[in-house]
Each structure stands twice: as structure tokens, then as C-alpha cells.
Automatic annotation (TrEMBL):
Organism: Camellia sinensis
SUPFAM superfamilies noted in UniProt: ABC transporter transmembrane region (SSF90123)
Residue stretches spanning the membrane: 12-31, 106-128, 209-229
The keyword ATP-binding belongs to this UniProt entry's keyword annotation: yes
Protein name stated in the entry: ABC transmembrane type-1 domain-containing protein
Upper taxonomic lineage: Eukaryota, Viridiplantae, Streptophyta, Embryophyta, Tracheophyta
Keyword NADP set for record: no
Length: 245
């Protein structure tokens, strides 16, 4: 009896040691992945910002005078500031937010495919459908970004010119007119932000609809398969995880 108890205790100790070792390995992998993701995002962001700044300054200093005659200085400064903000802030954060879900999605698909390989067909059709819809979104998003650059420059020019001529404007009692003109320019610039958000919601709605349609079609086809071809319990758990993910 004593030997059996000691043997059970040793087995429990070994199991706890294995669990602790496995937990430490998982935490180490997660910490290493997180640190590598943050470090890579920072280094790539610095490299992209440096490359953009050098190319931008070289293009400005080597541009002919005709370029400055046809392009307002406010539009150049607006384009430089907006693009630098995108490179310095938006792209690194977007990279961090994209890499983590990508790793998670690949891990989920891999685990599900190891149990039921039919999931690969669903993943393939879902990716193709998302890529097809994304092609329509990219053309509209690029055009909206280009128009946003043309609508933001008048706002900056109006603010700069109004601040320089504020004494003359108040002397002729034209403050209300300039204020109304400024509000119209701000409204025109804000419309582009609304349209950009609308296109993003359009993309999300279509992608989710196509993915759900693909999942429902796959589940319906699995139901029509002969009995015993796919284990019903495992298949339902897998598809439940698919809908949750």
C-alpha cells in the first residue's frame, strides 16, 4: 500500500513537472513571438520612414520650378505630413494588428485541418472570395485617398491665409464670410472620411457574408455525405469553432 501511494505521488509529481515545463515553453514562445513582432514592426517602421523622407526631399529639391508654379505649397506640406503620419504611426500599428490575427488564423486552420482535412477546402474558397471582393475595395480606397489629398490642401491654405490677413478681414467686417467658407471646406474634407468608412464597412459586410455562405455550404454538403464518412461529433465541434473564429 505504501509503495502504491509513493508510486502515485511520484507520477503526480512527474505530471506536474511536465505541465510546468510545457507551460514555461508556451509562455516563452508567446513572449518571444510578441517581442519579435514589436521589434520587427519598429525596425521596419524606422526603415520605411527614413526611405520615404529621403525620397521625398530628393524629389522636392530636384523638382523643376514649373512644379511649384502649378502645385500649392500647402498641398505639398499636407501630403508630406499626412504620409509621414501614416508611415510613422498607422503602418506599424497596422502591422502589429495584422500579424497577430494572421498567426492565430493559421494556427486555428492547422489545428482544425489536423483533425478534419475538409476544412482546407472551406479555407481556400473563403480566401479566394475575400481576395475577389478586396479587388473592388482597393480601387475605390486608392481613389478616395487621392481625392482626400486635394480636399485637405484648401483647408490648410484657407487657415493660413486667414491667419495672415485677420486684421484686414476684421477691418472690412468679413469674418462671418470667411468662417462660412472655412466650414464648407471642412465639410468637403469630412465627406471623404465618411466615404472611406463606408467603403470599409462595405468590404467587411461582403467578406463576412461570403465567408458565412461558404461555411453554410460546406456544412450542408457534409450533411449530405454518406453515414460514417465524417464523424458527426468532431465535425460539429470543428464547424462551431469556425463560426466562433
Amino acid at each position: 500500500m505504501t509503495k502504491r501511494v509513493s508510486r502515485l505521488q511520484s507520477v503526480e509529481i512527474e505530471a506536474m513537472a511536465i505541465c510546468h515545463s510545457f507551460s514555461m515553453i508556451v509562455l516563452t514562445v508567446v513572449a518571444t513571438t510578441t517581442a519579435g513582432e514589436s521589434l520587427s514592426a519598429t525596425l521596419l517602421g524606422l526603415k520605411a520612414s527614413k526611405a520615404f523622407f529621403l525620397d521625398f526631399t530628393n524629389s522636392i529639391f530636384n523638382a523643376p520650378m514649373l512644379f511649384f508654379d502649378s502645385t500649392p505649397v500647402g498641398r505639398i506640406l499636407t501630403r508630406a505630413s499626412s504620409d509621414l503620419c501614416v508611415v510613422d504611426f498607422d503602418i506599424p500599428f497596422s502591422f502589429a494588428f495584422v500579424v497577430a490575427p494572421l498567426i492565430e488564423s493559421v494556427a486555428i486552420i492547422g489545428i482544425m485541418a489536423s483533425v478534419m482535412w475538409q476544412v482546407l477546402f472551406v479555407a481556400f474558397f473563403a480566401i479566394v472570395a475575400s481576395k475577389y471582393v478586396q479587388g473592388y475595395y482597393q480601387a475605390s480606397a486608392r481613389e478616395l485617398m487621392r481625392i482626400n489629398g486635394t480636399t485637405k490642401a484648401p483647408v490648410m491654405n484657407c487657415a493660413a491665409e486667414t491667419s495672415l490677413g485677420v486684421v484686414t478681414i476684421r477691418a472690412f467686417n468679413m469674418a462671418n464670410r470667411f468662417f462660412q467658407n472655412y466650414l464648407k471646406l471642412v465639410d468637403n474634407d469630412a465627406k471623404l472620411l465618411f466615404y472611406s468608412n463606408a467603403t470599409m464597412e462595405w468590404l467587411i459586410l461582403r467578406v463576412e457574408a461570403l465567408q458565412n455562405l461558404t461555411l453554410f455550404t460546406a456544412v450542408f454538403l457534409l450533411v449530405l455525405l454518406p453515414k460514417g464518412y465524417v464523424h458527426p461529433g468532431i465535425s460539429m465541434v470543428q464547424w462551431n469553432n469556425s463560426f466562433i473564429a
